[in-house]
Amino acid sequence: MATLTYVYADSTAVVGPLATQAEPHSYDLCNAHAHRLTAPRGWELVRFEGEFAPPQPSCDDLTALAEAVREAGRVDRPVEHPPTTGTGRRGHLRVLPTPTEK
Question: Any residues with CB less than 8 A from the CB of 59 and at least 6 apart, and which?
Answer without folding.
Answer: none
